[in-house]
Specification:
Elements (H helix, E strand, L loop, with lengths): L1 H29 L9 H13 L7 E8 L5 H8 L9 E8 L3 H8 L4 E3 L8 H11 L6 E4 L5 E2 L3 H9 L5 E8 L5 H23 L11 E4 H8 L7 H11 L4 E11 L5 H22 L3 H7 L2 H10 L4 H19 L5 H20 L7 H5 L4 H12 L17
Parallel strand pairs: 1-2, 1-4, 2-3, 6-8
Antiparallel strand pairs: 4-7, 5-8, 6-7
Helix pairs in contact: 1-7, 1-13, 1-14, 9-10, 10-12, 10-16, 13-14
Length: 402
C-alpha cells in the first residue's frame, strides 16, 4: 500500500514537471522554423509603400527609472545621447530615486529632463507614473530602459524602421553586456533562452512576444492609458496582461540590441529571482479570473500568457528531473524499470530543449562547464519559495556590483 501511494506521488510529480517541459520544448522546436510571411502579397505592398514615401522620423521619449543606480546611470544616459538620429526627435528623461547629490549633479549637466520624486515606497511603476504626470509634451512612442542598459548608436534608426510598420508594442533584444563570472554567464544564457522561447518562437507562429522590463517601446498614448493601472513590482507582466486584454500584438525585434548588466553574485541572483517569482505568482493570480472571457473571445495570446505564469522555472526543472532520475533509479532496482525510465526521458527532453533554445554562438564547452554553479543557484531559488508573499507589492532592488 505504501509503495502504491509513493508511485502515485511519483507520477503526479512527473506530470507536473512534464507539463512545463512540453511547453518549452514545443516553442524551442518552433524557434528553429524559417520565418515565413503569412501574407506575401500584403507584406510586399507594405514594404513598397514604406520605400516610396519620404522617410518619417517618429518622436521618442526615453525613460530611465533609476533607483539607487549611481554607478551605472550616467554612462548609460551619455551613451544613449550619442544616437545617429535627429536630435529634436528624441528626448531622455531620468527619474532619479534615492540617488546621490553628485549623481544628480552630473545628470543635470546633460541635455535631459531630470525628475527627482520622493516616494515613501519606491517602485518602477510609480517612477513611470510620476514621469507621465510631469512631462507634458506629446511623443509618438515611449521607450523604457533600465539604468544599466546600453545601446548601439543606430538603436533609434532601427527602432524607427520597426515602428514604421505600425507596431504599437515592441520588445527589443536584451542581451548580456558582462561576463564577469559563472553566475553572470549563466544569467546571460538564461535570458537568451527566454528570448528564443518566449519571444522569437512566439512571434514565429503569430503569438505575442513576452515583455522583459526594459528595451521596450510603446505607442505613447497607449502607454499613458495603461501605466496608471500598474500596481505591483512586476510592472512588465502587468503591462503585458493589459495589452493582451486589449488584443495589442507585441512584436519582438531580435536585431535591435539592448545590452543589460547581468547579476554576478549569489545574493543579487537570489534577490532578482525572488522578485521574478513573486511577480509570476501575482500575475498568475490576477490572470486566472479572466480566462473564461479569453476563451469566449478567442484571445489565444492571453490564454498563452496565463499558461506561462504557471510554468516551473527551467533551472528547477533541470535539477528536479535529474535528482528524481537518480532517486527513482534506486527504487527501480527493487521494484520496476518504469519508475525511472520516464524520469530519464523527461531529463533528456529538458536537455534537448535548453540546447535548441540556446543560440549557436553560446553552445560552447566553456559555457556548459559553468553548469556546475547551477545547483547552488537552484538552492537559492528553492529558498525563495519560502519567502514568496503574493500580496507583497514592495520593490526588491537588485544592486550592481563593481
Amino acid at each position: 500500500m505504501l509503495w502504491t501511494i509513493l508511485h502515485i506521488i511519483d507520477i503526479l510529480i512527473w506530470l507536473l514537471l512534464a507539463a512545463s517541459t512540453l511547453y518549452i520544448l514545443f516553442f524551442a522546436l518552433v524557434s528553429t522554423l524559417w520565418k515565413k510571411r503569412i501574407n506575401e502579397f500584403t507584406s510586399f505592398l507594405t514594404d513598397q509603400k514604406l520605400a516610396m514615401r519620404e522617410k518619417e522620423f517618429f518622436s521618442y521619449l526615453v525613460l530611465y527609472p533609476a533607483y539607487n543606480e549611481d554607478r551605472v546611470i550616467v554612462p548609460s544616459v551619455r551613451t544613449f545621447l550619442g544616437q545617429y538620429y535627429p536630435y529634436n526627435s528624441f528626448h531622455v528623461a531620468v527619474i532619479s530615486d534615492h540617488m546621490k547629490p553628485e549623481t544628480n549633479q552630473a545628470l543635470s549637466e546633460l541635455p535631459i529632463t531630470l525628475l527627482q520624486p520622493v516616494f515613501e515606497k519606491s517602485s518602477k511603476a510609480k517612477a513611470m507614473q510620476y514621469a507621465m504626470d510631469q512631462i507634458k509634451e506629446d511623443y509618438d512612442y515611449i521607450i523604457i530602459m533600465d539604468a544599466d542598459n546600453v545601446v548601439n548608436s543606430d538603436f533609434l534608426q532601427k527602432l524607427n524602421d520597426s515602428c514604421a510598420h505600425g507596431y504599437k508594442a515592441i520588445q527589443c533584444h536584451r542581451c548580456a553586456k558582462n561576463k564577469d563570472n559563472d553566475i553572470a554567464v549563466l544569467d546571460g544564457v538564461s535570458e537568451e533562452i527566454n528570448n528564443t522561447i518566449f519571444r522569437k518562437a512566439h512571434n514565429r507562429i503569430g503569438l505575442s512576444s513576452a515583455l522583459i522590463g526594459s528595451g521596450m517601446c510603446f505607442d505613447f498614448k497607449l502607454f499613458k492609458e495603461n501605466v496608471y493601472k500598474l500596481t505591483t513590482a512586476g510592472e512588465d507582466r502587468e503591462m503585458e496582461a493589459l495589452l493582451l486584454k486589449q488584443k495589442v500584438y507585441i512584436h519582438y525585434e531580435p536585431d535591435i540590441h539592448v545590452f543589460d548588466e547581468k547579476v554576478s553574485n549569489k545574493d543579487n541572483f537570489q534577490k532578482q529571482r525572488l522578485r521574478w517569482m513573486t511577480a509570476q505568482i501575482q500575475s498568475l493570480i490576477s490572470l486566472l479570473p479572466y480566462i473564461p472571457t479569453a476563451i469566449k473571445t478567442g484571445n489565444i495570446d492571453f490564454i498563452d500568457k496565463t499558461i506561462q505564469q504557471a510554468l516551473i522555472p527551467r533551472s528547477m526543472l533541470v535539477v528536479g528531473a535529474f535528482g528524481m532520475s537518480f532517486v527513482m533509479t534506486a527504487f527501480s532496482l527493487i521494484f520496476s524499470l518504469s519508475w525511472y525510465i520516464k524520469w530519464w526521458c523527461l531529463f533528456l527532453a529538458i536537455c534537448i530543449t535548453l540546447y535548441v533554445a540556446t543560440p549557436k554562438q553560446l553552445r560552447s564547452h566553456s559555457v556548459f562547464g559553468k553548469l556546475l554553479s547551477l545547483p547552488k543557484l537552484v538552492w537559492k531559488m528553492v529558498m525563495n519559495i519560502l519567502k514568496i508573499d503574493h500580496k507583497n507589492t514592495d520593490f526588491i532592488h537588485t544592486s550592481h556590483d563593481k
